Amino acid sequence: MNDTLPKEAYTDQAFFKLEMQHIFSNTWALAGLVEDIVEVGDYITVQAGLNNILLIMNNQGQLAAFHNMCRHRGTRLVDGKGQLKSKLTCPYHDWSYDLEGNLLSLPKQRSEFADIDKSCLGLKKAKVAIFSGMLWVHPDIEAISIEQWFGPFSQYLGPHDVESLVESKDDLQIEEINANWKIVVDNYIDHYHLAQLHSGSLNMYDHKKAEFAFVGHHFRFWEPLTQDYAVDLAKNAPLPLIDHAQEEKRGTWVPMLFPAIGLAATECSWSVFHIIPCAVDKTKVVVRTKVKNCSNLEYLKQGMRSANYWRQKTKASQPQYDSSHPLGSGDFMQEDIYICEQLQKSLTSPYFEPGPSATLGESPIRQHQALVWQWIKPYWQQHKTDTKQQ
Ligand SMILES: [Fe+2]
């Protein structure tokens, strides 16, 4: 793509496996929102690189994280999310653990395990943290704290008090994208495309005045509202305004937390854009959105108040397409997904060759690629040497 990351970074499953092993297994992973786990026994599971982590509220009312594997044969204990009464039981041979991860007495053929020391066979612990209204896990119990991981970056997340907002379940969006996870991240942090691809869908923000840069591993981005939108914001906003988001400089905060968690904190919503790598050319994106805690009637009224403004404002990116086509939809997510997939398709062409990169607008992409390359380069070079020798 540029003179750092090789093209195989987007097409070769071996490169993808190295990323899972060395990036996604060694960084803090998003597990959910704080309200996902509120009662003793509530649990969620999350993939963190090569590790599946189980996050649960234990009998003391504390969050605990474990590697989701029975200590007998390694079978995954639970899937998805749910509620456990008092223990975790492996479906294979009924080995059971309490909510603190301790192995309980073995149910059958007890004599076959007469000599084992149960105290050594508790579930392996992972690390858990709450940060900015979100639940996070790290596969390594000795990992640096989440406060150290984000460091001073928390000042770039926006003024939103995430826990005071409520999730808008109607806005839950789950997308399967036929593109490498880095194409999705690169697109998220690419300033250059905003004024073109999203000319009719993100035209309420003043892209020329955007402020953005990498701060360590994480990317900060802020841009103000356009004059025509801001002049009568109380009427134009599509949703009730989040009062405390008006206190600081008004605009939208769209950071990307390394390696693949985007946030979008606007004047009337807060979203987490969870990019989940599935295969070298497959990525799942789950977007959860929170809004002001007020009545349905208030939402209805605001929608009606702003309808006329948006009818005129929202346009197809390419007018020759009708609204059933992503480029005719006026929906920035559909526009982005389409472009990510079109880019991925070209990567297998022997004629593929990246062109010049915009000095400022595409600088985040170059920096992101350099960052990934820093993490993977020695392992990739070793992999190339090993495959040559075979
Ligand atoms: Fe975009």
Write the layout of secondary structure elements.
Layout: H1 13-24, E1 29-33, E2 42-48, E3 51-57, E4 63-67, E5 81-83, E6 87-89, E7 96-98, E8 125-131, E9 134-138, H2 146-150, E10 166-167, E11 173-177, H3 181-189, H4 194-197, E12 211-215, E13 218-224, H5 227-230, H6 233-236, E14 251-253, E15 256-257, E16 261-265, E17 270-279, E18 282-291, H7 296-313, H8 332-346, H9 363-389
Antiparallel strand pairs: 1-9, 2-3, 2-5, 3-4, 4-8, 6-7, 8-9, 10-18, 11-18, 12-13, 13-14, 15-16, 16-17, 17-18
This protein binds fe (ii) ion.
The site of fe (ii) ion has 6 residues, from α8.
Nutshell version of this structure?
This protein is α+β, with helices and mostly antiparallel strands and 390 residues long. The chain has helices at residues 13-24, 146-150, 181-189, 194-197, 227-230, 233-236, 296-313, 332-346, 363-389; strands at 29-33, 42-48, 51-57, 63-67, 81-83, 87-89, 96-98, 125-131, 134-138, 166-167, 173-177, 211-215, 218-224, 251-253, 256-257, 261-265, 270-279, 282-291.
